[in-house]
Amino acid sequence: MENSHAGEKFPTRAKDVSLLELRQRLAEFACARGWDRYHSPRNLLLALVGEVGELSEIFQWKGEVGRGLPNWTSHDKEHLAEELSDVLLYLIQLADVCDLDLGQAALSKIIKNAAKYPVTVPPSHAATD
Ligand SMILES: Nc1ccn([C@H]2C[C@H](O)[C@@H](COP(=O)(O)OP(=O)(O)OP(=O)(O)O)O2)c(=O)n1
């Protein structure tokens, strides 16, 4: 089943969305509008930071927010999803124009993080013999 959004066809619920698909769609979007010439690394970084600011505004002055966002309306959650998406989409484009494979880089970083912060057994779980 599909629905229409801004004249385009999107699956109602994608099974999985790859970084590659997002990167390709974003490149097509920018190219079709002649915007790729403005999508320099610096411009995309500034756009990304601007969207992080918009994301921050959602949480501003709210106090601590519980996991799962209890008491948030569906409108609030939809707004949050849009701002998170803007951040992701600019981040993907920034990595693209820097010729970086963001997925591979993130996987490598996770492995590096695990080596830097090894799992330690809490004293209460250690062998007692
Ligand atoms: N040169 C551009 C302009 C926009 N976008 C895309 C990436 C973002 O997902 C979204 C950003 O669009 P807006 O600048 O209109 O920002 P908002 O969607 O946040 O709108 P507003 O600032 O009015 O809340 O569009 C893009 O890729 N390249």
TrEMBL record:
Names of required cofactors: Mg(2+)
Organism, as annotated: Trapa natans (Water chestnut)
Record's function text: Hydrolyzes deoxynucleoside triphosphates (dNTPs) to the corresponding nucleoside monophosphates. Has a strong preference for dCTP and its analogs including 5-iodo-dCTP and 5-methyl-dCTP for which it may even have a higher efficiency. May protect DNA or RNA against the incorporation of these genotoxic nucleotide analogs through their catabolism.
Any single GO BP term: dCTP catabolic process
Keywords per UniProt: Cytoplasm, Hydrolase, Magnesium, Metal-binding
InterPro entries on file: DCTPP (IPR025984), MazG-like_dom (IPR004518)
One CC-aspect GO term: cytosol
Gene Ontology molecular function terms on file: dCTP diphosphatase activity; magnesium ion binding
Gene3D superfamilies in the record: MazG-like
Intracellular or extracellular location(s): Cytoplasm, Cytosol
Domain NTP pyrophosphohydrolase MazG-like: 40-110
EC number: 3.6.1.12
Assembly description: Homotetramer.
Catalysis performed (reactions): dCTP + H2O = dCMP + diphosphate + H(+)
Name under which the protein is recorded: dCTP pyrophosphatase 1
